[in-house]
Amino acid sequence: MSVIYLLISISIIVAICFFIAFIRAVKTGQYEDDYTPSVRMLFDDELTKTPDKQLQTQAKKQI
Amino acid sequence: MDHTKYCFHCGLDIAPTELIVFSDKNFCCNGCKTVFEIFSQNGLESYYDLEKSPGATPLSNSNKYDFLDNEKIVKRLLQFDEGNTQIVQLNIPHIHCSSCIWILENLRKLRPEISSSQVNFHEKTVRITFNSQTISLKELVCLLGAIGYEPYISLEDYDSGKKSEDKTLTYKLGVAFFCFGNIMLLSFPEYFEMKEYWLDQYRGFFRLLIFGLSLPSFFYSASGYYVAAYKSIRSRMLNIEIPIALGIVIMFVRSVVDITFDYGPGFFDSLTGLIFFMLLGKMFQIKTYSFLSFERDYKSYFPIAVTRITDAGEENIPIYEINPGDKLLIRNQELIPADGILVSAHAAIDYSFVTGESVPVMKECGDRIYAGGRLNGALIEMGVLQSVSQSYLTQLWSNEVFEKKAKRQFQSITDKVSHYFTPVLLALAFAGFGYWIFRNTDTAFNVFTAVLIVACPCALALTAPFTLGNMLRIYGRAKFYIKNATVIEQLAKVDTVVFDKTGTITSGKLSAITYEGSYLSDNKLGWIKNIVRASNHPLSRMLYDFLPEAKNLTVDKFEEIAGYGIDARVDGNAIRIGSAGFVGAKADVSLTQTVIYISINGIVMGKYIFHNQYREGLSGLFAALHPRYDIRVLSGDNEGERAVLETLLPKDTIMVFNQKPQQKLDYIKLLQIEGKRVMMVGDGLNDAGALAQSDVGIAISENVNVFSPACDAILDASQFSRLGELLALSKKAMLTIKWSFGLSLLYNVVGLTFALTGNLMPLVAAIIMPLSTITIVSFVTLMSNWYGRRIKQAANVVKYDKYHGLGQPRKVILNTQI
């Protein structure tokens, strides 16, 4: 039955790990801005558009 | 069919004459087109895919940021500055959608010198990391300005150190929840009290663990209550914290005694639960609007630097270095930082920040000009008479009320109840102890501690935070942003409401125009319209918008004489538009409104009168408030509008005119001395003193993101007519709290009967405590939502939404207010 000592100790340690994770999350400011990251994560796919060649050459001519 | 075209970049409707078509898209001006070009050249067209017409017209005034050439100023603005890495955080009011986030976080595609940028949407700020060797802060700011994201840099940025937010409550709550959750799990075997062999075997181990887990909660999370209780004992006030702290300590001591002598499992579960729920209530009560500031003073509006003219030429200096006798150069749209004398021939100064009045005031050479005004028109020179902090307007902030406001004590409803609750509770505990001590000493101690444990006013302490916290959110959705929970309590107690006039009960923006005089034919109206079109004077612009469409005529002669009017010739007719003396009319002294006279070929035709435009629903609001509140109107203007106001407002409304900022403050003070609880509703910086002095100061704001003086609450101008409802709601909130107090006292009575008869088992405590908490919290939430439902419904009606194409687009005023 002494396995219960082991199990409970493990469960407490796991709980403490999560607690530490929470403290770190607060420290690094993850709770300060809860909106921008949710928008930001959707952007990455759209960045790959190639610049409009025609407009670029036009701009060069102007310069 | 609606043929109006909207600008592809900024979404404003385009005047047919100004339409620019570029790459199959419509633009309202060259500025918008240029931004589009910049983006498309750099492969950033996704900007327009994310949201429709997300942009703003860029400003062309590039001199505005010349002060960023001054190294000293730049150094203070930078958050981090070492070697090749500089970090600056800029406030950009235009941030409003995902396109904005996208473009600002892709600045490095426009200029590779920028290594990264990060937006905080709620605060409307962007944090930019760049290399100042290759791109200066000024270039950076100008780049932002050029793409329509002009940063707002004020004296405040210069002054304040970087604020660090207080996160202790979050940590305490985290610790409390951690302890509470684990203890609850470990306590389960005890609840069932099964006489199983292995449960008995491990009981000691479980209890030891529970005891260990309760320590952080008891010593760290609950520490705030001990401090508060100690403070209130020292100041001889019976706060709610005393019974709470007493309950927690007694609970802990009794539990420790219980487990050491093996009397029972103790009350650790209830103890940690109690601490957790009370901290949760505290957290819930704090609703912050990170994009708003309730603490602004003039520093938020004043520029950081100005241009001083010296013999050697022009130089940019921080405004604290302005001395009387200096000569300053003020450009179009710049603020006048200190009182002085106008040196240039004439100037139009817009005092809307100060008074709420939008029509600029004309000043002549030698006139005194006051700090806080914004220049409209060509650049001027001025001589400084007073330093910045000694100026007419800024002096107001040296008044002691701005110091006192933070410290002023307010007895909340919870404190009042606990004033009676605490003595009764202590009396009961001692009575129970006295009764049992002669019968059974053990039971006597049990009863004494049980009373204090069960009566620990957890539910009582939770009522106000949850009700008021919920109310703050309901108000927030109705665009009434309140600083903190105590303001709602004070709102419910108000009996006198004082309104500022200009900008508060008048909208300050549009003026209604009426015409008095001889009949003007369409022909003549056409002449006038063509003349005023050429003029940039604000009154001309208003008159131009007011007059009906007319065909374009050539104006043969056009001469604008500042301070007088326009002398022009159209179709062979000499027309004069301007002041009475200028056109040769007899000035009507009884009129105190702004008037423009018209004469054609030397004959005075009549006059256009510019009225203040009162806010919609003003009469209704005053009529609704009148039976319950003492209403007053406090104005910095002359009595010109008295007659109009008298017809609009209830008969016995007291109106006071010609009030200077300091007089407004004193007036409120006087009312308070009479024993009235005053709510001040104002808008401009000239109301700042009155807002600070009053019990509740509410700032009306046309655009909550940009402008409002220090106050207790900010009300969006569109919601002005509902002020009465909002006030009534605060009374309902207090009613909810009272009901809920009754309910929680009922729980206390039940718990106390258990305690006094000596039957309080840990299990009973463990049931009563969460049960009362949950019922109280759900009761107050339901009640406040029920009362707030009408407010919410009405707020959901979309008036206009430029950004998503709903409703009618209207001019966005962001840029002109920066």
In short:
The complex is a heterodimer of chains A (63) and B (818). Helix content of chain A is 63%, strand content 0%. Chain A is mainly alpha-helical and 63 residues long.
Describe this structure in words.
The complex is a heterodimer of chains A (63) and B (818). With 63 residues, chain A is mostly helical. Chain A contains three helices and no strands. The longest helix of chain A is centred in the N-terminal third of the chain and has 25 residues. Chain A is elongated, with a radius of gyration of 26 Å. The C terminus of chain B is likely disordered. Chain B is built from 29 helices and 30 strands. Helix content of chain B is 45%, strand content 18%. In chain B, a hairpin with a 4-residue loop joins β29 and β30. Chains A and B meet through α1, α2 and α3 of A and α1, α2, α4, β5 and α8 of B.
Fold blueprint:
The complex is a heterodimer of chains A (63) and B (818).
Chain A lengths: L2 H25 L8 H5 L12 H10 L1
Chain B lengths: L19 E3 L2 E3 L2 H12 L4 H5 L20 H7 E5 L2 E7 L6 H8 L1 H4 L3 E7 L4 E6 L6 H10 L8 H5 L8 H25 L4 H25 L1 H12 L6 H20 L7 H18 L19 E6 L2 E6 L8 E4 L9 E3 L3 E5 L1 H4 L5 E4 L3 E2 L4 E3 L3 E5 L16 H7 L5 H25 L3 H14 L3 H20 L2 E3 L2 H9 L2 E5 H5 L6 E6 L4 H12 L4 H9 L8 E7 L3 E6 L2 E6 L1 H4 L10 E7 L2 E9 L6 H8 L4 E5 L7 H7 L5 E3 L4 H13 L4 E5 L5 H6 L2 E6 L11 E4 L6 H34 L5 H34 L4 E2 L4 E2 L6 H4 L1
Identify the quaternary structure here: heterodimer
Q: How widely separated are the two ends of chain A?
A: 84 Å
Summing up helix and strand content along with how strands pair, one would put the structural category of chain A as mainly alpha
| Computed structural class of chain B | alpha+beta
Radius of gyration of chain A, taken over Cα atoms and rounded to an integer in Å: 26 Å
Mean pLDDT of chain B: 78
Number of strands of chain A: 0
* Biggest β-sheet strands, sense, barrel of chain B: 7 strands, mixed
Largest sheet of chain A: none
Percent range of helical residues of chain A:
55-70%
Kindly report the average pLDDT value of chain A: 73
